[in-house]
Amino acid sequence: MEDDPGTLPLDGITVVALEQAVAAPIATRHLADMGARVIKVERVGEGDFARNYDDAVFGEASHFVWLNRGKESFCVDLKSEEGRDAVLRLIAGADVFVQNLAPDAASRLGFGTEALRAEHAELIVANMSGYGTAGPRRERKAYDMLVQAETGMISVTGTPETATKTGVPVSDIAAGMYALTSILSALFRRERTGVGAQIDVSMFDATTEWLGHPMYMKMYADRQIPRAGLGHAAIVPYDAYPTRDGNILIGVQNDRGWRQLVTEVFSRPELAEHPRYATNMLRVQHRAEVDALVAEETKKFTLAALDQALADAGIPAAEMNDMGGLIDHPQLKERDRWRQVGSEVGQISAVLPPMTFADVEMRMGDIPALGEHTDRILGELGCSAADIAAMRAAGVVG
């Protein structure tokens, strides 16, 4: 479906992003997908350090490709007065300013929230941090893994023997998603009131929110949720089980599901009301017995046959894919979820954003080269070709 000009949700919104790594870029990339103009301010020479994490995508970094399509790269030296002035002029014409620099760094550069909103009451400023604006950890560096450790995420992730972080940066992503929803809410409120907003989102707070279940179990039942690998600490059977030719994950959510599993799939009706297995709480108490019993039954099936039998009985189950399985997944292919986006190294495959509007497809713009849009943006700010050449010669822009 071609974009219908003017119908993208954020058409006409301008965002200036002083961002790096994952947390802020994932928020602003979704804003770009929804039609906003996102101007990404990058360092002269280096740019967002995520550009150099790897070279997996035809020489480009996979994180950067994932998180920065549809943005404009404005490369400027923020240590220079001219560079800072250019960014301030950009912000003056923007609807949203997003930054995830180190604590107080934005203020030291002249981009503090109070100063910006004193000049532009309608501006929405979203500040993203590791641990928030106060507290004993405020000044600490806050990479995703560190926040997962500090919040206790790793205490409930992994196997009984080994705590692990998640395979993707969930603390970064959680913070980015809360920033995104906050910015959208602030834009909606501004439509009614004309007033902007100051938004503060921390990785620590976002991850804490996601840990509500294990946190309340500890607070009120004094129970530390155990690490259960692929299993579930509070539900049984919920794990990977063997078949003749592979493994399948089965997740029985309630006692009705247990009865369906043992009667309709395993043909073992005597297990439905067994005094040790009839309820989920009983099955959790006898986890090892239940898992062994289920595994004994699943080994009688091929993977394909069991997958179909579980589906026919309405039992939640899933194949255990790797990334190759995801890339080739029929759920993506048959729903036409893949698109091509441009970059300086050619066309790159990307999956459509999760937000699916019936009347318009989200915009999936090109991945910007470092400083690709600098001259054009400076021209919009009123700089002449000679001005731009002088700034480049002085190292102010790149």
Produce the secondary structure layout:
Blueprint: E1 14-18, H1 23-33, E2 37-42, H2 62-67, E3 71-75, H3 81-92, E4 96-99, H4 105-108, H5 113-119, E5 124-129, H6 144-151, H7 170-193, E6 197-202, H8 203-210, H9 212-221, E7 238-242, E8 247-251, H10 255-265, H11 280-285, H12 287-298, H13 303-313, E9 317-319, H14 323-327, H15 330-333, E10 338-341, E11 348-351, H16 374-380, H17 385-393
Parallel strand pairs: 1-2, 1-4, 2-3, 4-5, 5-6
Antiparallel strand pairs: 7-8, 8-9, 10-11
Helix pairs in contact: 1-7, 6-8, 7-8, 10-13
Description:
This protein has 398 residues and is of the alpha/beta class. Helix content is 39%, strand content 13%. The protein contains 17 helices and 11 strands. The chain has helices at residues 23-33, 62-67, 81-92, 105-108, 113-119, 144-151, 170-193, 203-210, 212-221, 255-265, 280-285, 287-298, 303-313, 323-327, 330-333, 374-380, 385-393, and strands spanning 14-18, 37-42, 71-75, 96-99, 124-129, 197-202, 238-242, 247-251, 317-319, 338-341, 348-351. The strands form 3 sheets. It has a 6-stranded parallel sheet, with helices on both faces. A 3-stranded antiparallel sheet has the order 7-8-9, covered by helices on one side. A two-stranded antiparallel sheet has the order 10-11. The longest helix has 24 residues, at 170-193. It is elongated.
